[in-house]
Amino acid sequence: MRKKRSARKGSKSLPKQLQYRDQDRLFSSLEENLSKIQQEMGHSSDLVIRRIEAGTDPKHSVALVQIEGLVDDRRADEFLTKSIMVDSAPMDVETPFYDFVKENALSMSNVQLVSRWEELFHALLDGKTLVLGEGWPEALCADTAGGDKRPVTEPALQTVIRGPRDSFTETLSTNLALVRRRIKSSKLWVQSQQVGKMTRTEVAVLHLEGIADPDTVKEVIRKIRQINIDGVLESGYLEGFIQDKTRTPFPTVYNTERPDVIAGGLLEGRVAILMDNTPVALIVPTTFFQFLTSVEEYYQRWDIATATRILRFLIFTISLMGPSIYVAFKAFHPTLIPTELMVNLMAQREGVPFPAIVEAFLMEITFEILREAGIRTPRPLSTAVTIVGAIIIGETAIRAGLVTPSMVIVVSITAIASFATPSYSLANSARLIRFGLMLSAGLFGLLGLTLALIVLVAHMNSLRSFGTPYLIPVAPFVPRDQKDLFIRMPWEALSTRPRTARPLDDQRIPEGQDPEPTRDPKEDDPS
Amino acid sequence: MERESISPFQLFLLVMLFELGSAVVVPLGLDAKQDAWIAILLALVPAVGLIWLYSFLHRRYPNRTLIGTLQTLLGKPTGWTVGLLYVTYFMYIATRVLRDFAELLDASFFPQTPMMIETVLMVFSIAYVVSLGIDVIAKTGQIFACLYLLSLLVAVLLLLFSGAVEMESLQPVAEDWKRIFEAAFPVVYTFPFGEMIVFTMLFPYVRPKSNVMGTAIGAMVLSGLVISLVVATEIAALGANIVSRGSFPLLTTIAKVNIADFIQRVEVLALLILIVGLFFKIALFFYAALIGAAELFRRKSHQPLVLPFSIILILLSMMIAGNLPEHIQEGLKAVPWYLHLPMQTGLPVLLSIIALIRGRSRKAGV
Amino acid sequence: MKRLLSVFLPLCLLTTGCWDYRELDNRAVVMGMGIDKAEDGRYRISFQIANPNRVAQQAGGQSGGGGPAGSPVTTYAVTGSNITEAIRKATENVPRQIFLAHQRLEVISEAVAREGIGPLLDVMERDPQGSIHIPVLVVRGGTTAEAVLSTLPPLEEIPATKIYDQLKTHEEMSGETYAVDVTEVLRALTQKGRQPVLPGVRLIGDPAVAENMETMEHALPLAKVKLDGMAMFNRDGKLVGWMNGAAARGLAFINNKIQNTVVHLDCKGRKKEVSVEIQRVKTSIRPRWNHGKWTFHIHLTGEGNVHEVNCPLNLEDPRILDRLETQLSREVSREVREAVRAAQGAGTDVLGLGEALHRERPDLWKRWEKDWHRRFPKVKVQVSSTFVLRRTGMRFNPHQKEQ
Q: pLDDT for A271-282, tens place per residue?
């Protein structure tokens, strides 16, 4: 109900320059057209209009319209010379100049005709070059989109030791190519649409036909189509709109900047969403456990990958509950601490002015401040921040007797564990939940902590990502998918796709693909 | 949205969690002294028959809860009234377990905290989980059942390894059969085994329906064996006398773990077992009462009832007894005879007889 | 519903204090407790409280700016009619909450033990902090428990910890005394077929010197705590006698407490020239109907290793080993017999013969249970043992040759 109303309101408040009158077709007068373009664009300074006298006899006035910076100059020039500057070509006098140019230009790639204002503006703003001429009812429009692009670089967030080094950029076409290069199959289908009334951002939905669950694909496209907003600047906007439940600290849409992760997801039957202007792509449906895995586990030997994976569960537990367990044991259950350790902790506590729980909060908040400062500080200053932080917190605070050394150790381990969580979004949720757990542990000890944990798990169980239970394959239990959960079985054992995305085709490796030992060459020796 | 359901595997774990729940933390069957473990196994035998009875009713009316079956078999007004009785019964038992929980926690780990706080915390956590529906209860229960069984296993193993267990404490075996029988019936038979009546409210949710009875019986027998093992371990570690006088013998037993002065102070296992086990036990009784009430009063969802029922639960648990001994005495003397036996055995037997007669007359009619 | 919850929960949190929340530095960690008789007939209870700064410092930790030098423990003594009263009263002297969970042991003076240990056990059993699993010792020779607890040991920091470790090591290496915790005492006191025993401890040297810090600086400690024998209690929990030396070890043999001990054997008329280490001892007690009377058969089996030989013996000769085995069995049986004699003399069944009867013949036990304490001293006991020598260490024959 509310959505509908806002949609209507949205259409009313549509910017003036994009509303067209009945005569939404181009005029035939060049001057009229140009002045209309300038008027609609508010005489923006990056609007470039070049007037050219083309043709030998008679001369025809033609105008080239483009937006500075969005256009690849080389391609624009090429287009211009090939289409209009055709002095050398023998011109048939009988053929009108317009028809000649049209035929000549349309034989080239990426050239279209536009006759409507709306199309014209869309093309212009997409970085195309328009050619208008006196007396032409249409405009030639060439795809010369270009301009400055960031080259493909190494991923900044999800780094690996072994594995491909490329990551997505802000350009959708580049990103799509990065995925296509990995899956060279006609079954990789890309469906595009534009989101945002003002930004008209290109959003591409990728899936593998015949593997991905068609309902999920339809649902993704439906949800994206329903987004009615003035603009989307990052895939985080999309994530907010397509997730199943908003009131949860947990991410239910997986995001990555790695094309190999997207390709892996597609092969498992998931649906990927790529967006222009952001290097972060989305995958649905996802599960909690996907956030705890790193793609590198599939590139390494299975036993090592398994060990890493188990370590990672430990890491997540620490980053979630480190300080709360410490506070609960120290302040509520010293009975359960070994005597020597307890006496040691007691000695540290002597003279510390704050209660343990306040101390924990102080230290955690200090750490969060440091961390935030680390991200926001201009790079030349970041060393200064680190040094100040390390000295103040690590040294002086302890020496001044304001905090106990053991608390600093606990907070540091928690912080490191938080950094070691493979997914940044999950690490963020853990940060948030950590404070809640600290509060419940500080008020009610292990009782508070255990109950909070049960409630947390119940909450996670109530989550779904495009119909997939968040904690699958643990709850509900899927025996078949245990092979790629806490342990990563050898590749030949990962013969089926996980049920997570409800793939149409389960089989990943046909039967009987066990690796055989290489034959000893001596045996083949005929002599 | 698909209808809420639980899988047979989840049912299995829920039954385990429910059966073990409070049974492993309190002294059970200790009237039989060192033969308590035999008393537990003995009580298991008729309990299997009882589950057979429940699943007989379930097979007759596979899509109805106990409340629905009652109304079908006894007619509208009578069935409705008896249904209300059952809802009250479930609430009352939830209250009793809640009180157990608060008392034990107060006596062991939180001596200074008022019981009200523990109760309120527990009930609100349960209310949240229960309001999310049986699907979430089952999935959460499944995860915590694994944690729970693991804790129990580790506790028992540690005890065995620490050499704290003296098998001689279990001798002489089967000293006095009369005493064993008296310990087994009605107390152990009704608590924890007879309390399986709660699952007659959940059976309709089990999907696929392949083998509800087998799953339930399997889980109950296994939990019976586990309880028996735990009680035997307790007796072997502390002696029957100390166990029988204890309010939370599992804690005292686990506290005994000391392997080379290195692995010790593992009482946290007992705390986990207490909280997790009782959480799900109360949650299941509470949920059964809620959906029962929703069915009686023709509500689509049980969610609006959660808050009022939670408050009733808190207040009742504070009021049912003045102190722990009174609470325990009620639980051992009055409740098994006047409440458990008729509600768990009497009425279901009656229902089955009616169902049989009806089935026969219908067949004869056709 | 959700809104109500979200209002309710924070309210609950705010209005609640933190009842069981207590900072570590507000707790006084009791390491050991001593119980004496006060002059007015009440109990005088001493708490040994750890001084964490000092302990941590000695453990080699970072010295927090040179903490106060001094003893690692402080011992407070309070008089009260029972332990609970004393604990509460201790707060008059101790600024922190008495915290019993890390208690290492409890020491009882002989006078208190003679009067009965029953009244002391209830609070330990009821206490949720697990005091039920700590060992209890009885002080011999008229010294007070307070003095034993206050004796500063030369090596370890905390006296209670030192006595505890001593007890554990002695149990492992000799078995003459062994740790008995409150559970075991309670178990024995709540049934008629076995009576409790407790290890004894004795202060050697001048107790006045013992409390002095300077003790720690002497190479030869002036006062030290020594474990000595096992105290026997009757069914009312009153101390009725001691088992010493061989008898004490015999008791450990019977109660299956021997893990590793050394027995010295005579060789060629010279006393104690061969030492044999004993392991894996198993003792069984079986009541048998013999010649119209019930006889208890105590049978021991075990293994031995020759540890030291100071006389020329040809250990390569199997017959010599056989002879040593017989000697060993005889020696162990003798010690066990001594224990039986001591127990029967004291008239208290610390051997668990009644329990054995209960296990084997519950019907008979039912008739005997009531007057078991009268029957026990007169009951006939037969002791036998079978030991096998397994190894002789790194050498076969000793370097001493027969002249």
A: 999 999 999 999
End-to-end CA distance of chain C: give it in Å, rounded: 100
Average pLDDT, chain C: 83
pLDDT range class, residue A125, cuts 50, 70, 90: confident
Burial of A199 (0-12, 13-18, 19+ CB in 10 A): middle
Which of C23, C50, C101 lies nearest to residue A335, judging by beta carbons?
C101
For residue B42, the SS3 value is: helix
Q: Would C54 be classed as within a structural domain? A: no
Alpha-carbon Rg for chain A, nearest whole angstrom, is 31
Q: What is the pLDDT of residue A85?
A: 64
> Would you give the end-to-end CA distance of chain B in angstroms?
39
- Cβ atoms of B281 and B300 closer than 8 Å: no
User: Is the Cβ pair A344, C56 closer than 8 Å?
Assistant: yes
Which of B29, B307, B349 shows the shortest CA–CA distance to B193?
B29
| DSSP H helices in B66-211 | 66-74, 76-108, 115-131, 134-161, 177-183
Q: Could you read off the pLDDT of A320-355 as tens digits, one per residue?
A: 999 999 999 998 888 888 888 888 888 888 888 888
Q: CB contact, 8 Å: B239 with chain C?
A: yes
Report the residue from C1, C9, C360 with minimal CB separation from B303.
C1
Would C351 be classed as within a structural domain?
yes
A89 pLDDT band, cuts 50/70/90, is low
Rg (CA), chain B: 20
Under 8 Å CB pairs connecting chains A and C tally to: 73
List the one residue out of B164, B122, B143, B356 whose CA is nearest residue B263.
Answer: B164
Pick the residue of C12, C13, C23 with the most A CBs within 10 A to test the interface with A by mutation. Answer: C23
Angle subtended at Cα C101 by Cα C99 and Cα C102, rounded to the nearest 5 degrees? 95
* pLDDT beyond 50 at C64: no
Q: CA C201 to CA C228: how far, in whole Å?
A: 5
Instruction: Indicate the number of domains in chain C.
Output: 1
Determine the structural domain holding residue C308 and report its residue range. Answer: 247-403
Taking the C-alpha atoms of residue B104 and residue B110, their distance in angstroms, rounded to an integer, is 9
pLDDT at C61: 45
Mutation target to probe the B interface, by most B beta carbons within 10 A, among A244, A326, A447, A471 is: A447
Please report, for the domain that includes residue C365, its CATH number: 3.30.300.210
In our burial notation (b when 16+ CB lie closer than 10 A, e otherwise), range A281-298 reads bbbbbbbbbbbbbbbbbb
Give the closest-approach CA distance of A440 to chain C in angstroms.
9
In a domain, C349, yes or no: yes
How confident is the model over A401-427, as pLDDT tens digits?
888 889 989 999 999 999 999 888 999
B39 in reach of chain A (CB within 8 A): no
pLDDT, mean of residues C18-25: 78
Residue C290 located in a structural domain: yes
State the amino acid at position C274 in one-letter form: V
**B341 or C66, greater pLDDT:** B341
Which domains does chain B carry? Answer: 8-354 (1.20.1740.10)
Strands A139-142 and A111-114: antiparallel
| Residues 6 or more apart whose Cβ sits within 8 Å of residue A29 | A134, A135
pLDDT class for C59, splitting at 50, 70, 90? low
Residue A88 has pLDDT above 70, yes or no: no
- ipTM of this predicted structure: 0.94
Nearest beta carbon to residue A447 from set B7, B110, B144: B110
Residue A258 CB burial class (10 angstroms; 0-12, 13-18, ≥19): buried
Per-range mean pLDDT, top range of A439-448, A452-461, C73-82: A452-461
CA terminus-to-terminus distance, chain A: 85
How far is it, in rounded angstroms, from Cα B100 to Cα B118?
Answer: 11
